[in-house]
Amino acid sequence: MKSIRNSGLVILTILFIYGCAPKVPTTNSPSTGNEPVAAAELPDKPTEKKEAYSPVGVWEYTVDTPDGGSSGVLRITGEPGSYEASLETDQFGTLEISDLEIVGTSMSGSIEVAGNSAEIEGDFDGDEFSGAVVLGDQVLPLEATRTSKGG
Predict the structure, then answer these.
(1) CB-side neighbour CA atoms (13 Å) of 4
(2) Which terminal residue of the chain, N or C, has fewer Cβ atoms less than 10 Å from its own Cβ?
């Protein structure tokens, strides 16, 4: 009777140890999809949130035209979803950019130049902007450099 009792205790001890052991699938055991994931298998959590690009500021620009270069100031104010922009020119005064869209690091919009509609499009790269003014069938390269991050 004593040996049966000792055998029972040994079996209970083995079951207890087995029940407490971590369940780690082996390479040749079938996966049920419910196995715990080891910490080394978890993807890295981002440690810092990347801030969205802000084009706000004062930009000095030049546009290459058939008559030579034209330069001025591009001003961008506001915040995501409500940016406003204008071009300050010597020849045409201040031109408001309408239908302005700034998504990520790309910008597009429209201006009225001497009664003609023109499109502005391009991309920001830090404190640099490269794009074009499209006036009819003319594509005029536009380059700008941010001189101030204030509006």
Answers:
(1) 1
(2) N
- Clarify whether residues 69 and 7 are in a common domain: no
Q: Whole-angstrom Cα distance, residue 48 to residue 46?
A: 6
Number of domains, the chain: 2
Condensed to tens digits (0 to 9), the pLDDT of residues 95-136 reads 999 999 999 999 999 999 889 999 999 999 999 999 999 999
User: Which residue matches tokens 């790309």?
Assistant: 106
What are the tokens at 49? Answer: 């949130």
The pTM of this model reads 0.66
| Greatest Cα pair distance in the chain | 112
In a domain, residue 94? The reply is yes
Its domain, for residue 13, covers 2-26+35-41
